[in-house]
Amino acid sequence: MGSYRRVLLKLSGEVLAGDSPFGLDMGAIKKICREIASIAESGLEIAMVVGGGNIIRGAQVTGAELGRAQGDYMGMLATVINSLALQNVLEHLGIPTRVQTAIEMREIAEPFIRRKALRHLEKGRIVIFAAGTGSPFFSTDTAAALRSAEISADCLLKATKVDGIYDDDPAKNPEAKLLPRITYMEALQKQLKVMDAAAFSLCMENRIPILVANILKEGTLRDILINGKQVGTVVHLEKE
After folding, report:
1. Domains in the chain, ordered, with CATH?
2. Could you report the per-residue pLDDT of 149-188, keeping only the tens digit for each?
3. pTM above threshold 0.85
4. Fewer CB atoms near the end CB (10 Å): N or C, the chain?
C-alpha cells in the first residue's frame, strides 16, 4: 500500500451523470464504485463527499424568487440522493457503507457524528458524508476539506473528469499545461477554479495534501493510493 492509511474522496456530481448533462447514469456509477471497491478491499480507510451538480446547483438556481440559502439547501438534498445511489452500488459489490448527513433524516441515513464516523472507518466501512456542511453558502469542496480535517485524513483526493490542475482552461486553450505539483498559496493566488478558496485554505491550515485526478481513467485510484504513483496534480504546503 502507498503512504496513505485514511483518505477522503471527493466526487463531483457530474461524474455520476456519465455522458448525460443531468441525472444519474448507473453504468458510470457502477464503474466508479468498482474502482473504489478495489482499493477498499486493500484495507485503506475511505470516506467520501459527493457533490450534487448532476441534479441541482444551489448557486445556479438562485434569483429574485429563490434566495441563495434556499437554493443551497436544495443542492444539499441532491447530494443525499447521490450518496444513497453510491451506497447501494457499493453494498451490492460487498463493501459495507454508511451514509451520514449533516441535515438529519434518520429514516434514510445516520446523522453526522464524528466519533461514530471514525468507528465505521476503523471497522472497514466506507463512510459517505452527505448534505455538505449542513449550512448554506459553503460548497461541497469546503465540506470535503472540513470532513478531511475532522477525520484526520492523510489526503483529500478530488476525483473529476479532468486529468488534474492546468495553468489555463484546457477546454478553451489546447496549449494549457498540466501542473504536476503546486502549493496552496499558488492555487489561491492564481484563483484556480478546481476548488474554492475556503477549501484550499482549510486544507492548507491543516496540512492536508489535495490530489486532483481523473477518476474516469481506469486504475487511477489504485495508482495513486495503493501504488504511490504521481498521477494528476498534488497541492501541497511548500514549494519543492
Report:
1. 6-236 (3.40.1160.10)
2. 999 999 999 998 889 999 888 888 888 899 999 999 998 8
3. yes
4. C
